[in-house]
Specification:
The chain is of the alpha+beta class. The chain has 2 helices and 8 strands; from the N terminus they run E-E-H-E-E-E-E-E-E-H. The strands form 3 sheets. The chain has a 3-stranded antiparallel sheet, with no helix packed on it.
């Protein structure tokens, strides 16, 4: 995705949309995800995942970068209902017209990050600070 106009830092660009499913359902439907190297699943909270393969919007086409110009922010609803939480994509810095929108996917897998998995989840963002993988250190 590319900016059609200038986007000031801090701007809410769009929400990450899709079908809301539980983590258990995502595991049943998609497996643990470690072997795919591709996903439109975004963890929303401890209970739910946004599955952008169903009902997803343009946010699912924003690419990863190791030096992103956007960030994904989880917004917890004031009433505490986890079904009403949302994911917001916002600009980290001023973005020029025509510039590609990117954010760090922050993919954390519970399994050991083997050479094979790092290759499967390879990053090709082209940033001088590229880590070579979309996988992030485990917490």
């Amino acid at each position: 995705m590319f900016a059609r106009a200038a986007i000031p830092a801090g701007t809410h660009i769009l929400d990450y949309k899709g079908r809301l499913i539980t983590h258990a359902r995502a595991d049943r439907v998609y497996g643990d995800g470690a072997e795919s190297g591709h996903t439109f699943l975004f963890a929303l909270n401890r209970r739910y995942i946004v599955d952008a393969t169903v009902g997803g919007n343009a946010a699912r086409w924003i690419n990863h970068s190791c030096t992103p110009n956007c960030q994904a922010v989880i917004v917890h609803h004031a009433d505490g209902n986890p079904r009403r939480d949302r994911i917001v994509i916002e600009a980290l810095r001023d973005i020029a017209p025509g510039e590609e929108l990117t954010y760090n996917y922050g993919i954390v897998l519970d399994v050991r990050h083997t050479t094979r998995l790092k290759k499967l989840w390879a990053c090709h963002c082209g940033s001088p600070a590229c880590t070579g993988t979309l996988l992030q250190p485990k917490y």
